[in-house]
């Protein structure tokens, strides 16, 4: 039997049909396009069977599949080790071209090199595109071509380049969707992928909630955040549309989007930050790493209401307000002297918006060991943070219902913890 000559578009962190760079290019190829998503065993095997993020990916794929049905086509969903999946696809189809959007994390780079090599060995043209960011890899560099390691000059160069180009181009795919192959593939049940439903859900994003973002973003009780971060993480929204909107409407929010790209380029340029301090001078810090203290932090029972409310919000919803993230991260690293990697791993397990670059970057910022980090002697006082940003205790009472009925004493005195942290950092810094 003659195999079907096709082009493949491989969905990964870009779970949308509209304004999708690689998809836009694929749909203009000379062959009908099969849309593919692979549930990668190498990623899934490390996740709990009710992982809420897998639920979100699955739901997003269902939405894409419903859209595709209007054009007489469907998603091809595969599960397995990615290289083995592609080897089986080579046997099943006469693949002419493969398109996908780039991913800048170390695991993804290694995976994509292996897949590209396999395809090229089989004389299949392979095309990858920038889609997850506005500026990638080496597009924003210092005059000597080296990457920026301080945010503000990076941001200034980023804005200069963005404004010179007018705005980020948006790709209209609607007229091209007829170019999908008309194959009808079965859509698997969640259980067939080895997962089950989780009551924790990704919330819809809402830009109207950040109309006064600059003035309200630090007050967790106001809930004036966009809930965009998981959608950005998995690409259910276009970064180009968001940046173009923010440039016109909300410069403070735009700065946060640029922070995201800053950390992505740091991870790409310095992949060792995943497991090591960006500033090696801090490698000598003698962390206490007390497991009982860590458990109290994880469960939100430290006796510091702002810390505990944040951790309970995370555990119950997969979200945590950004101001509170800074407070709980500082508390773990500075008050308890627990290595930032412990906190980074816990957030990686729990956060719906977990993205390696931002998670590592922000944790090292809080610990004082990263690029452009908070100085080691900055130790957030959780009680002052509470008075400044949740003075009436609205946020705290939402997540700590027992707060008014005799709350726990703090597990450690702030003044003692601050002095101990500063002394420990000073002693640990390698000259």
From TrEMBL:
Taxonomic lineage of the native organism: Bacteria, Pseudomonadati, Bacteroidota, Flavobacteriia, Flavobacteriales
UniProt site (Electron transfer via tryptophanyl radical): 287, 340, 363
Organism of origin: Flavobacterium pectinovorum
Family: Belongs to the DNA photolyase family.
Cofactors: FAD; (6R)-5,10-methylene-5,6,7,8-tetrahydrofolate
Keyword Repeat: no
Residues given in the record as FAD binding sites: 213, 225-229, 253, 256-263
PANTHER family, per the entry: CRYPTOCHROME (PTHR11455), CRYPTOCHROME CIRCADIAN CLOCK 5 ISOFORM X1 (PTHR11455:SF9)
Name this polypeptide is given: Deoxyribodipyrimidine photo-lyase
Bilayer-crossing regions: none
């Amino acid at each position: 039997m003659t195999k079907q000559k096709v082009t493949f578009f491989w969905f990964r962190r870009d779970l949308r049909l509209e304004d999708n760079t690689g998809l836009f290019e694929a749909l203009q190829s000379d062959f009908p396009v099969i849309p593919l998503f692979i549930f990668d065993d190498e990623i899934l095997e490390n996740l709990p069977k009710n992982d809420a993020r897998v639920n979100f990916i699955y739901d997003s794929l269902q939405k894409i599949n419903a859209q595709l049905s209007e054009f007489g086509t469907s998603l091809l969903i595969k599960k397995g080790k990615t290289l083995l999946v592609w080897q089986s696809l080579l046997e099943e189809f006469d693949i002419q071209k493969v398109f996908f959007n780039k991913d800048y994390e170390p695991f993804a780079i290694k995976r994509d090199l292996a897949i590209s090599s396999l395809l090229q060995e089989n004389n299949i043209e392979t095309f990858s595109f920038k889609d997850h960011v506005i500026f990638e890899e080496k597009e924003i560099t210092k005059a000597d071509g080296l990457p920026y390691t301080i945010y503000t000059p990076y941001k200034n160069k980023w804005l200069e380049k963005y404004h010179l180009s007018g705005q980020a181009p948006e790709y209209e795919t609607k007229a091209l969707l007829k170019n999908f192959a008309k194959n009808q593939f079965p859509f698997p049940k969640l259980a067939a992928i080895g997962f089950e439903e989780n009551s924790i859900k990704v919330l819809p994003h809402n830009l109207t909630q950040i109309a006064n973002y600059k003035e309200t973003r630090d007050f967790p009780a106001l809930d004036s955040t966009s809930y965009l971060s998981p959608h950005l993480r998995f690409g259910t929204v276009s970064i180009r549309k968001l940046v173009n909107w923010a440039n016109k409407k909300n410069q403070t929010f735009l700065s946060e989007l640029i922070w995201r790209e800053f950390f992505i380029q740091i991870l790409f340029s310095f992949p060792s930050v995943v497991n090591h301090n960006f500033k090696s001078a801090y490698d000598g810090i003698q962390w206490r790493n007390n497991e009982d203290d860590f458990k109290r932090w994880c469960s939100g029972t430290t006796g510091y209401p702002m810390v505990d409310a944040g951790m309970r919000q995370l555990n119950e919803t997969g979200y945590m307000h950004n101001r509170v993230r800074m407070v709980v991260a500082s508390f773990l690293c500075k008050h308890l002297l627990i290595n930032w990697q412990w906190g980074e791993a816990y957030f990686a397990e729990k956060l719906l918006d977990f993205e390696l670059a931002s998670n590592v970057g922000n944790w090292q910022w809080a610990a004082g060991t990263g690029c452009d980090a908070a100085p080691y002697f900055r130790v957030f006082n959780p009680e002052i943070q509470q008075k400044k940003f949740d003075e009436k205790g609205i946020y705290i009472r939402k997540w700590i219902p027992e707060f008014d009925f005799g709350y726990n004493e703090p597990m450690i005195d702030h003044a003692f913890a601050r002095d101990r942290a500063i002394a420990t950092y000073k002693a640990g810094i390698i000259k």
